[in-house]
Specification:
By secondary structure, this protein is an alpha/beta fold. It has 21 helices and 20 strands.
């Protein structure tokens, strides 16, 4: 029969397929149409094997005539598959892999982390030292595979020794960026990844504590503040065998979270891995005096293929992007909001007169369904799409080496984010370009977003006074949008800001929230148990985010672009130490 857009399809797993043991067949009305592409099947097969249910529909029919008919498929994971069921299936998968011998485990780990590639020499050196039980410090440039080291060793410890890993990132935003991709990747090995930051709500925090106490999580992504506040209670009971300190140059910061973490790690009995691309001699001297490392590994590789294009003075950004689009080369444009990603993609399509190029434009952000994100990644890898407008969600853990252009449309929020986004260009070693398209006006957007998620004391005091005034009139039953309207005199107030700020006050016991059906009531606590804002993890993590942004904003507008390039293309290390 004829195929039609929206038609339901059936996906069937073929474990015994002679050509591909990840094969997933596609059927329409009982007729076999073909197979999912190998790359997509590789990602979905473990989920099918864990009895995760998917629905599939035809999203587009392609082909020039009836003899070359093709279909694009929209695949969605069924919502009713519960978290509890998923965790039990993860545990089953983990048990199966744990029963294999060590060499088979390592082979599976490498396959999930690197695919068809092998570890680089310095990665092998680091893993060998870790497997000897040593504490290791790695200095490697952006794009040289630091995360592959700790993901591989975390998986090895969980599968072979039932030990858990804590990965400490300097910023909450980095935890959020890394979490989804790492959780998806390690789930193929049966491993459970959780994130632990001050941003999680009361119910999520209670569930996190329960899982950690019951040793249900294998890898925990967190911030210094959250780790230190919970180390003697929850983390102490979680049998932590391995602590990873990413962006480890922060260990020398004056920030209280890092001072406390250094003190705690002096008593830690497990292994420590610290990694960074930036380790000047004076910082290394401070860290070396504080923590003991058995092995220092330096990858001094310089990525000479990267070219920095300073376009910070461009006023007509969309017109500039249209010219780049015409070159039809693999490009990622990074923006700071989901809405902007959609708007720019639409603007470029509207301006583009070439129908072929128009079909190669797509937006991407973390709010898309996982299946949609995978399809976009696959199409970009294969060249079906060539121009992606995205938030920072695109790129981390996605092995696409031939990205020719990375455009920084907006200002980043930290040196770490700038390095990561820009460093995704040209990982195959071919010539690639990093275009700086941000300008001074973009500071306003960043300030707005920071005010929402990282409010300062003045904003919170003004908002709390407004809440107390409303509370004196009776129960507060206003929605977040209504609260934002009632307090619109406060700078940068928004619905999202209200949600985040209420979370800070609830954490401090300044207020509580009760929900009955669709009605929410806010109750002001006249005698809160905590009075210092810095007792709120949300607040202290936010202050750290703001401080890191202020540091980066100074670097972002310097005239010497060589320094901006050096932040991406090479590691900084003490030259008195032999490589």
């Amino acid at each position: 029969g004829c195929l039609s857009v929206g038609q339901e399809l059936v996906l069937k797993r073929e474990k015994e397929n002679a050509y591909d043991n990840n094969a997933i067949a596609v059927y329409a009305d009982g007729k076999h149409l073909g197979y999912l592409k190998r790359e997509l099947a590789h990602h979905l097969a473990p989920c099918f094997d864990r009895n995760v249910a998917y629905t599939a529909n035809i999203s587009q029919i392609t082909g020039l005539d009836k003899n070359t008919l093709g279909v694009n498929i929209f695949i969605r994971r069924e919502k009713e598959f519960s978290c509890v069921d998923e965790r039990s299936l993860l545990a089953k998968r983990k048990a199966e892999i744990s029963a294999l011998n060590i060499n088979e485990q390592k082979k599976l780990i490498k396959q999930e982390i690197l695919g068809e590639y092998d570890y680089r020499d310095k990665q092998k050196e680091a893993l060998a030292a870790l497997q000897k039980g040593e504490n290791v410090f790695c200095i490697m440039g952006t794009g040289r595979g630091k995360s592959a080291i700790f993901q591989s060793y975390s998986a090895y410890l969980a599968l072979s020794q039932k030990k858990r890993t804590v990965i400490v990132y300097p910023l909450r935003s980095l935890v959020n960026d890394q979490y989804n991709r790492m959780a998806e990747r390690l789930s193929h090995l049966g491993l459970d990844v959780v994130k632990a930051t001050g941003e999680i709500n009361t119910e999520e925090r209670a569930e996190l504590y329960r899982r950690l106490k019951n040793n249900e999580a294998d890898v925990i992504l967190t911030t210094p503040e959250f780790f230190c506040c919970n180390q003697k209670t929850v983390f102490a009971e979680a049998q932590i065998g391995f602590v990873v300190l990413d962006e480890a140059h922060h260990l020398a910061d004056r920030r209280s979270g890092y001072k406390r973490i250094v003190s705690l790690l002096k008593e830690f009995k497990g292994q420590i891995l610290a990694l960074t691309a930036t380790m000047p001699a004076e910082i290394w001297a401070k860290i070396g005096d504080s923590l003991h490392f058995d092995e220092l590994i330096i990858d001094g590789h310089i990525r000479e293929n990267l070219i920095l294009d300073d376009c910070r003075g461009v006023k007509e950004k969309i017109a500039w992007l249209s010219e780049l689009l015409a070159e039809d080369e693999k490009t990622i444009v990074y923006v700071n909001s989901r809405r902007k990603a959609v708007e720019i993609a639409q603007s470029l399509r509207d301006r583009c007169g070439d129908e072929r190029l128009k079909r190669k434009i797509c937006y991407y952000h973390g709010g898309l369904e996982a299946s949609d994100r995978k399809m976009i990644e696959k199409d970009f890898r294969e060249g079906i799409l060539s121009f992606i407008i995205s938030t920072s969600a695109f790129g981390e853990g996605i092995d696409i080496g031939d990205i020719k252009h990375v455009v920084l449309y907006h200002l980043s929020f930290s040196c770490e984010e700038y390095n990561q986004l820009a460093g995704r260009a040209g990982r195959n070693g071919e010539k690639a370009y990093i275009h700086l398209l941000y300008n001074e006006r973009d500071k306003n957007l960043n300030e707005l977003l920071l005010s929402e998620n990282c409010p300062n004391r003045e904003l919170l005091v003004a908002f709390y006074k407004a809440l107390r005034a409303l509370g004196r009139k009776g129960e507060i039953t206003l929605t977040n949008a209504q609260l934002a309207q009632h307090t619109k005199g406060i700078k940068n107030i928004s619905e999202n800001a209200v949600s985040h700020w209420l979370g800070i006050f609830e954490e401090l016991n300044f207020l509580s929230r009760e929900t009955s059906g669709s009605k929410r009531t806010i109750i002001i606590n006249e005698k809160p148990s905590k009075t210092d804002l810095e007792e709120s993890l949300r607040y202290t993590e936010g202050i750290a985010e703001r401080e890191e942004y202020d540091k980066y904003a100074e670097l972002a507008f310097i005239k010497d672009t060589d320094k901006l390039l050096e932040a991406i293309n090479r590691p900084i290390f003490p030259h008195s130490i032999n490589n």
